[in-house]
Amino acid sequence: MQIELRQISKRFGQFEALKGIDVTVANGTIHGVVGENGAGKSTLMKILTGYLSRSTGSILLNGREVACDTPASAAREGIGMLYQEPQDFPPLTVLDNFIVGRDSHPDGNRLRQRRRLEELAAQVHFRLNPDTLLEKLTVGERQQLEFLRLLGRDAQLLILDEPTTGISDRQKALLFQALRQIRDDGRTILLVSHKLEDIEALCDRVTVLRHGQVTGEELAPFHIPRLLELMFDAPSADQPPQKAAIPDSHPHGEPILQFHQVSAAGERTGLDRCNLEIHRGEVVGLAGLSGSGQGLFLRLAAALIDPREGEVRLHGQRLSSDDHRGFRKAGGSFLPADRLEEGLIPGFSIQDHFALSNGISAGRARRPALQAIEAFNIHGRPDSPAESLSGGNQQRLLLSLIPQDANLILLENPSRGLDVASARWVWEHLRSHYARQGAIVFSSAELDEILAIADRVLVFYEGRIVRDLSGDEIDYQYVAAAMTGN
Amino acid sequence: MNDLPLSVLLASVLATAAPLIIAALGETITEKAGVINLSLDGSMLLTAMVGFLVAYETHSFVLAFTAAAAIGALIAAIVGIFGIYLGQLQVAVGFALTLMCKDLAYFLGNPYSRLQGPQMVPMKIPLLGDIPFIGPVLFQQPLVVYFSLLLIAAVWWYLYHSVRGLELRAVGENPEAAYTRGIDPRRKQLLYTLIGGALVGIAGAAYSLDIKPGWGRPQGIEGLGWIALAIVIFGGWHPIKVALGALLFAFLQVFGITLQSYWPGIPAQVFQVAPFPLMILALVLVNLLQRDGVQRWLERRPGLALLLGKLRGAPPRALGRSFHPD
Amino acid sequence: MAVSTRLTPLWSRYATPLIDSLLILGIVFLFTSGLLLVVGTSPLEAYGHLMKGSFGSWSKFSRVLNVWIPLILCSMGLLYAFRTGLWNIGVEGQMVLGAIGATAMLRLGLDGGSPWLWLGLAMLAGMLLGALWALLAGWLKVWGGVHEIFTGLGLNFVAVGLVLWLIFGPWKRPGIASMSGTQPFPRELWFPTLEGWRVSPFAIGLALIVILASWWLLNRSRFGLNLKAVGRNPRAVPLYGLSPDRYLLIAIMISGALAGLAGMLQVSGVYHRLIPAISSGYGYLGLLVVMLANFRLLPIPFIALFFAALNVGSIQLPMMMQLDSSLSGVIQGACVLSALLVFGLRRLRQRRLA
């Protein structure tokens, strides 16, 4: 199937997510779409698959204009998508999940469907048990089932949105093999990713997006620096913020955070017997595939959840269960990744957040709010509601709420959704204010960020800390390998 | 009451349970699709009144049940449209409706109060009805009872052995995912809300034309809608368990007086309000069983874990929440 | 401090609620008139009786106020719960438990002692039992994860069962136990009022105090801001040092206490004894009031007055027009449903324009 996107635009209220996108995808190829976070890749794909409506523009398949205004109509045209978040039904069985759907001819004959599932799985060397409940499967396995469904549907165009996040190397290899196989069979594949190594491995051609616009197209074999140039603002702008030189003469102070045989349940993998100490002056990065335990670690340290076993100590004092207040009193601060869902109050203004945080009336909070807006360069007014601020400004607001004397800053994916300039500003601020008097611990989905910022890297894999690296030991290849279990 | 033969009492249990089974199964369908219809209590009263009114005026049971089903569906349609398409909280709409429908039933039914109306007679199935003991219990019942028993089988089959039933369950668990698979979750939810409402209507008419005939203020079925809601939860949203729950309640009602004579210390009210603490208990159990600490405790007791696994039923994940495509 | 509103043009902030209110009243008027025509009566005549029945004389208006007071107390209480996102449907049962508590105290007072003491204790007992009954539902939510709608409903039924047992059992009238309730209390134990007044001005004063105190607490105090934060985003508030569970429980307990207070007033001020229908549906009606007010405090006293007038006025209907008095309930329900319709359509429109 040959695809042509002409002048696709998408507005969300005031925000222009896509501006006049033109892309042509040749039949029977694997076509990559790359860009950094927030470039518009997922939005574009969701429009193509009918999940989102487009503001302007047209879609042509094999030269014919199509509507694609709902997933059902896109499915009729032969388009199928593997979403970043699994779109399935955990309480139902694998077989049920395979069967249900109106994007193909619904076949109620369970025996026939079961055999079909087994056939398709064998074709691409996947192993799935049809009778297991879906909620018991790993992310990678759930994705495999989705893939089989799309295959079984005879989708002529497969769109994959960030398919390799959260799956093991082995599952990734199987997936790539399967993709090449079906490409050779004549189907077209659109691969959306921010991981250039995946693009390199699979794609025949790649389109680069930045800030909702196409900045360029490249053919394989790819020249990585050229791709990076097209993806980011300036040629060397992807250079992560410089590590501030922390003089060696600054000894690591007393331990601020201690984990002693801590185990906990949650996320995909839980956390298993974690032991470590973090000292004053350290900037610690938590590396690992998403859901390997980093979020759990941060929340245990912040006393937001209870460990199943073991002890967490802050400044030598054991944190009692669910006592985030005590954590804050002792100088801790936690910034979650989902800023609006977990960190801010929708409907509350900047002023209201200061009132809430400091326990004062909103009238009295106006002054500190104005001061923070000034100091942190927040684009908003004291009475602007939190949800009207952009991601970057929400992050600045959260940072401004950290008390001056905090000595343990925990950050979850701090640069998520931020443009490079904002991310750089955030790190400079954190380092200059807190790196000396306390410790900073952060998790990130971007390995580059971790390598650039952290002096110490903890690698998480399947709920355990498998590597604890400092200084020269920190090496990209080594960490990337450890993240996937090697 | 002690003098009545056991078979008559058991037959009475089935008859008492029948409309409740119908209403509870209707609500099970609705909730499995993700919509909660809190208007059951008022709806049953209004449809009971309508059923009686139509039967009184037209002398046709068919028309009466049809009218009642239509009204039941209409009421459910309000919950459906306001909740699914207008973005209002389903519980808010349902709650306001239940109060209004109850008062509407009293208001419109006023002229028909305490009138002697048509009443359905039990239907005896030839041959089977003559079997000693089981005969009177199972095969000499009002039509409603047969309908309710068939309905249990039908709903069970539909939910777990048909493609559309699978789609229904999928929509109730994850409407967004269903949408990506080309299903229109909102239309499905509205459809099943209407079907559930129609069944509730039939249940209401079954009371005023058969089980508790007539109309009045009070009619005698006040509160049964809430009990039906409780039974859906207590039955873990599974049609067979829900039906068993309804039978259990009917059993307590019928035998309540008998049981009381054995335990005179326990007040009559305990039996009347029993379903509700049971419902709360069932809900607590669902949540507790999901807790990490409890799960680990159960790992060491596989027999108990299996039993509790069968008993508990988690609610459909999208229950009560509305879906909005872009 | 009030949560800052969006930057909407000033006129639209006032015009919109006005237009909405007119629309709602219009729909209700059409629906009710249509209904009355269908049953073959004159709408105007019915409306006339409703108005005369509630505002026609001081005695009638006193009855309206006697409904307004417990209704306001329940509604105000519900606001606290709604701020934290709780649907405290259990308010009916909480009112009943408050009535039970008050009755228990007043029965002790039958043996002598200062009436003021016993009335005071009755008030405290009423509020305490109401709060505890609410706490039960709240605790089941916080610890057991059970939605408060189901625990509330369940506990309502249990409360009714409890009151029936008391009236027909331990607290029954000497002679025959009957649905008319317990033995009426002597005059000394009646809620204080003034000579010739059918409604107690002290009770009115109490209601007004509760309204003002709630306005301050919910809209101006730190506590109110915290409550609002818990209601908007319980996941985020621990980061600000607040425990969402603690605030949920406090909010539902306040709700229960106010409902319990209403129950006490019903026992000591209106019926002067405990009857099975002591709550008179005011708990559920309070929910309707708050929904119609779109969860804002200011309209509540007026809406409550309107609803109370409907309740009292409709008593005339059976006598005057052979209509069932449940017309008031129909109108009240129709108001809320039209409000839900109008609010929903408006939201839809806003989303389309965005």
Outline the secondary-structure elements:
The complex is a heterotrimer of chains A (486), B (326) and C (354).
Chain A: E1 3-12, E2 15-25, E3 30-34, H1 41-48, E4 56-61, E5 64-66, H2 71-76, E6 79-82, H3 94-99, H4 110-123, H5 139-152, E7 157-161, H6 169-184, E8 188-193, H7 196-202, E9 205-210, E10 213-219, H8 224-231, E11 255-264, E12 271-279, E13 283-287, H9 294-301, E14 309-314, E15 317-318, H10 324-329, E16 332-335, H11 339-343, H12 350-358, H13 366-376, H14 391-400, E17 408-412, H15 420-434, E18 439-443, H16 447-453, E19 456-461, E20 464-470, H17 476-483
Parallel strand pairs in A: 3-8, 3-9, 6-7, 7-8, 13-18, 13-19, 16-17, 17-18
Antiparallel strand pairs in A: 1-2, 1-4, 4-5, 9-10, 11-12, 11-14, 14-15, 19-20
Chain B: H1 6-32, H2 40-58, H3 61-85, H4 90-109, E1 123-124, H5 134-139, E2 140-141, H6 143-161, H7 163-173, H8 175-180, H9 185-211, H10 224-234, H11 239-262, H12 268-273, H13 275-289, H14 292-299, H15 302-311
Antiparallel strand pairs in B: 1-2
Helix pairs in contact in B: 1-6, 1-9, 1-10, 1-11, 2-3, 2-4, 2-9, 2-10, 3-4, 3-9, 6-7, 10-11, 10-13
Chain C: H1 10-38, H2 43-55, H3 58-83, H4 91-109, H5 115-144, H6 148-168, H7 201-219, H8 222-232, H9 244-271, H10 282-292, H11 300-313, H12 316-321, H13 327-353
Helix pairs in contact in C: 1-13, 2-3, 2-11, 3-7, 3-9, 3-10, 3-11, 4-5, 4-6, 4-9, 5-6, 5-9, 7-8, 10-11, 10-13, 11-13
